[in-house]
């Protein structure tokens, strides 16, 4: 990442208090690397950006991948960083729990006026989350990575890349056919999970469930525990997507009812439904 941030999504409170941040916008050619990522071909030729710092360098600062960054309710994106290696949407400034990611490297003397004010505002903002450690640790890849890597199967020649990422069955079907493999995952994007390899959950699909990450899906699986014909499948799927090990449908229903408003799903945290600790999201 260089000196600039993208000009979209500037409605976060850190742009307004305690100091009003007034970026000076300019237009720049869309970085060519953005085109290499999913949907990059749909981006405009020019993009609105603003300079956070003035070092004159195209590299040196750091962005985080956007895929899975907001996978938990304690995470948020503050600014998208203009970069030369990752996708459009990669995070230049963001927050996880009580950790502020400020991806720009310049000293205040090299920041723009808007950059200095934003930095001060971000430090002021992150102090609100003192003691609130991030809810999850990254343990696997976001489902979007399946599509991104599927497009590369003819460029990466190592056979173990395909086998270790997608498995032998998909190698037989899609070897040499990146378009077909991308379509396979796009068609059932909401059912992708990763267990060693990226998979589409055919068990959920057989139940007529179209997403593995909606809270409604969890509720449906719990309700199926009462159906003798579906109970075994439901138990298997609950074990896949939660860390709970209740023995009876009544215990599952009680847990769900007690925590429903605090349940969230994370890809990068293991493709699991987790529960936000009580009081964690209360604002100071």
Distance between the termini: 33 Å
Helix tally equals 9
What kind of sheet is the major sheet? Answer: 3 strands, antiparallel
What is the helix fraction of residues, given as a range? 25-40%
Unreliable runs: none
Query: Radius of gyration from the CA trace?
Result: 22 Å
Fraction of residues in β-strands? 15-25%
Can you tell me the number of structural domains? 3
Strand tally is: 10
Mean pLDDT level: 93
Strand order of the largest sheet: 1-3-2
Broad shape: flat
What does this structure look like?
The chain has 284 residues and is an alpha+beta fold. The chain has helices at residues 113-126, 144-150, 159-166, 168-174, 178-187, 202-206, 215-224, 231-241, 249-259; strands at residues 4-6, 25-29, 46-51, 75-80, 91-96, 99-102, 192-195, 197-200, 263-266, 272-275. Helix 3 packs across helix 4 (168-174) and helix 7 packs antiparallel against helix 8 (231-241).
């Amino acid at each position: 990442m260089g000196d600039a941030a993208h000009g979209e999504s500037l409605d976060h409170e850190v742009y307004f208090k305690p100091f009003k941040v007034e970026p000076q916008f300019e237009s720049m050619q869309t970085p060519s690397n953005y085109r290499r990522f999913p949907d990059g071909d749909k981006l405009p030729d020019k993009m609105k950006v603003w300079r956070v710092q003035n070092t004159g360098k195209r590299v040196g600062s750091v962005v985080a991948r956007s895929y899975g960054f907001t996978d938990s309710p304690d995470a948020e994106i503050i600014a998208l960083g203009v970069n030369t290696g990752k996708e459009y949407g990669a995070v230049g400034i963001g927050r996880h729990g009580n950790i502020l990611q400020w991806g720009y490297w310049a000293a205040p003397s090299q920041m723009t006026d808007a950059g200095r004010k934003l930095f001060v505002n971000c430090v002021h903002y992150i102090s609100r989350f003192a003691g609130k450690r991030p809810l999850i640790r990254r343990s696997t890849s976001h489902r979007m990575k399946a599509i991104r890597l599927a497009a590369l199967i003819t460029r990466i020649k190592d056979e173990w890349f395909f086998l270790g990422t997608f498995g032998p069955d998909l190698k037989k079907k899609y070897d040499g056919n990146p378009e077909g493999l991308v379509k396979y995952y796009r068609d059932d994007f909401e059912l992708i999970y990763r267990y060693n390899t990226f998979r589409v959950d055919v068990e959920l699909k057989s139940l007529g469930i179209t997403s593995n990450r909606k809270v409604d899906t969890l509720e449906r699986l719990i309700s199926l525990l009462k159906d003798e014909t579906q109970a075994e499948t439901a138990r298997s799927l609950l074990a896949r997507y939660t860390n709970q090990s209740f023995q009876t449908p009544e215990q599952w229903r009680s847990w769900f009812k007690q925590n429903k408003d605090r349940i969230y799903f994370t890809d990068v945290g293991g493709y699991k439904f987790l529960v936000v600790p009580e009081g964690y999201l209360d604002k100071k």
